[in-house]
Amino acid sequence: MQDLFRRISTAAADMVGSSWTFIVAVVIVLAWAVSGPLFHFSDTWQLLINTGTTIITFLMVFLIQHAQNRDAECTQLKLDELIRAVKGARTMMIRLEDLSDEDLKRLRQEFSELHKGNDLIEKS
């Protein structure tokens, strides 16, 4: 079931992210706007676009979140592999996302100090 969802969500995200989908969306909105006088700008006419956009937005939230989670996990795994493969790299960095906010703050400070030290060396 998860594999099916992954395949569907990936295909949908690719499709929705295309320029053609944007063009189709613009055409739909223009057609809706142009049809306003035909339907006398009725409540039903307004409800049509409101309902359609609400449903699409609702579904897209889940689709985008899934795609973002998957991309972040893939990026994290690639970085983990690079850390593992580089001689002298601190392998404790591999699962940084599991550290507490305080631990991350300490590491950020450590790297900030290292960066400042490198700036001084480069200016010399």
From TrEMBL:
InterPro entries, per database record: Iron_permease_Fet4
UniProt keywords, alphabetically: Membrane, Transmembrane, Transmembrane helix
Biological process terms in GO annotation: transmembrane transport
Transmembrane segments: 12-33, 45-64
Identification of the protein by name: Low affinity iron permease family protein
UniProt source species: Oxalicibacterium flavum
